[in-house]
Design goal:
Oligomer: single chain
Strand content: 15-25%
Distance between the termini: 86 Å
Number of domains: 2
Largest sheet: 7 strands, mixed
CATH architecture of the largest domain: 3-Layer(aba) Sandwich
Bound molecules: 2-aminohexanedioic acid
Shape: globular
CATH superfamily of the largest domain: Aldehyde Dehydrogenase, Chain A, domain 1
Number of helices: 14
Length: 496
């Protein structure tokens, strides 16, 4: 059996063991007998060291011209391109999603790096006229300081890249705590950043549990901003901790995303979009489609078409290119999904297919679950309201567009929504009235591109967005600058 590699923390430019001396195993969710790596079970001492390193590296990094910072990130993109296949394979082994999707995850990091590297030569501010003569007004961006990035397991490289890359181009220094289920992809990304020339202390990585690493990291007084992606429950804890110290925080949290299928929709197209949104990444996306709201005129036909396709999805090890859906991330998640299926049945929804763990045929050592479809779901049922984060889709009937929009918006979340219709008026009405941060027309709820803002309304976030140019709003502070070259005391607002 191959020797299991021991992978270390990255602090101040060196790869270091944790002060606890303990490690934890990163296992393959498709085959739990495969241990991918042993990672550091870190403590608050390691966190402290990493944050101190980030704070010490800040003045120099902040004063490195932004175009130079951008050039290093451009090199990150180039290395990611060269290693894309290996990085994707590592990711499928640690996370389970199929290889096409992990290639997409790495691609999203590549897109982010190329796009954001260019910000090194923009970082746009404003110039505005002054109300006085011989006076010049402008705004410039400053880094926030030390950024703590706390990242989830479902996009093990893309989401870390959404945080690290904009933070770094803006002149911040960073400590990242990756999810314990998928630390290898963050490790790979940090190694690439080191290779590309990110100086010691500017980027640090500490692995370990939420309690021993995440909490001391967000509570550290030298951390100026916490950028978190994960569950709404954990996000509200992050918010409470940050509020106590009046530090900034940006949260990306849950979703209960819906696709509306109108009676004039291209049903074949809609079925494909719904399948991709519901069962891609085994339903473990915050943008996953977990409700499909179908016009009553076509619901019977649509449900039959969807059922046929759902039953035929190939579930298996994501490294096998023929598979369409991999395992869930761990047993806890699988039990949660199973529990929701039981709740759905108890609530009176009709289980059309799925609802159970998959075993046998070489799958018994993985956390596989059947693609699951519920019909006769009413909007208030728990399976229609709560985020399941698994391959469970609820079909809900609607009377008309207004009704569909009302059902979609009846959610504590507001991340992504979609509508399938051939009617331009319905499409625009939906764009206007769906209360989500992202809306797709004739496309699924997943697959956001990095050059637009990513995030949502209500319980999904706290008003911030990631990616696009707006990421700069999170990772910079504004400074307004007034330059008076009149040589006299000029008083704004004051009549002489
Ligand atoms: C997430 O699920 O946390 O739009 C991120 C998408 C991907 C990102 C998802 N580009 O589905």
């Amino acid at each position: 059996m191959a020797k299991v590699p021991v992978l270390k923390n990255y602090i101040n430019g060196s790869w270091k063991s944790s002060s606890s001396g303990d490690t934890f195993d990163n296992v393959n969710p498709a085959n739990t007998s495969e241990v991918i790596g042993r990672f550091q079970q870190s403590t608050c001492k390691d966190v402290d060291e990493a944050v101190e390193a980030a704070a010490a590296a800040l003045p120099k990094w902040k004063n490195t011209p932004a175009p130079q910072r951008g050039e290093i990130l451009f090199r990150v993109a180039e290395i990611l391109v060269k290693r894309k296949e290996q990085l994707a394979q590592d990711m499928t082994r640690e996370m389970g999603k199929i290889i096409k999707e992990t290639r997409g995850d790495v691609q999203e990091a590549i897109d982010m790096a190329y796009y954001t590297a260019g910000e090194g030569r923009r970082l746009l501010g404003e110039t505005v006229p002054s109300e006085l003569n011989n006076k010049f007004n402008m705004s410039v961006r400053m880094p926030v300081g030390v950024v703590a990035a706390i990242t989830p397991w479902n996009f093990p490289m893309a989401i870390p890249s959404w945080k690290l890359i904009p933070a770094l181009v803006c002149g911040n220094t960073v400590v990242i705590k990756p999810a314990s289920d998928t630390p290898l992809s963050s490790y790979n990304l940090v190694r690439i950043c080191e290779e590309a020339g990110i100086p010691p202390g500017v980027l640090n990585m500490v692995t370990g549990s939420g309690r021993n690493v995440g909490t001391p990291l967000m509570d550290h007084p030298k951390v100026n901003l916490v950028s978190f992606t994960g569950s709404t429950d954990t996000g509200s804890i992050v918010a409470a901790h940050c509020a106590k110290q009046m530090k900034q925080y940006s949260l990306e949290m849950g979703g209960k995303n819906a696709i509306i299928v109108m009676d004039d929709a291209d049903l074949n197209l809609a079925v494909e979009g719904v399948l991709w949104g519901a069962f891609g990444t085994t339903g473990q996306r915050c943008t996953a489609c977990s409700r499909v709201i179908v016009h009553k005129k076509v619901i019977k036909k649509f449900s039959n078409m969807l059922l046929r396709r759902t039953k035929n999805l190939k579930v298996g090890n994501g490294l096998n290119g023929k598979m369409e859906m991999g395992p869930l991330i761990n047993e806890e998640q699988r039990q949660k999904v199973l529990n929701y299926c039981n709740i759905g049945v108890e609530e009176g929804a009709k289980l059309l297919t799925g609802g159970a763990c998959v075993s046998g045929k070489g799958l018994s050592k993985g956390f596989f679950f059947e693609p699951t479809l519920f019909a006769d779901v009413s909007p208030k049922m728990r399976i229609a309201q709560e985020e399941i984060f698994g391959p469970v889709l609820s079909v809900i009937s609607c009377r008309n567009l207004d009704h569909a929009i009302q059902i979609t918006n009846d959610s504590k979340y507001g991340l992504s929504s979609a509508i399938y219709t051939q009617n331009v008026n319905s499409a625009f009405k939906a764009i206007e009235n769906l209360d989500t941060g992202i809306t797709y027309i004739n496309s699924s709820t997943i697959g956001a591109e990095i050059q637009l803002p990513f995030g949502g309304t209500k319980g999904t976030g706290n008003g911030h967005r990631e990616a696009g140019t707006v990421a700069l709003e999170t990772f910079t502070e504004w400074k307004s600058v007034y330059i008076d070259y009149s040589g006299t005391l000029q008083k704004a607002q004051i009549e002489e």
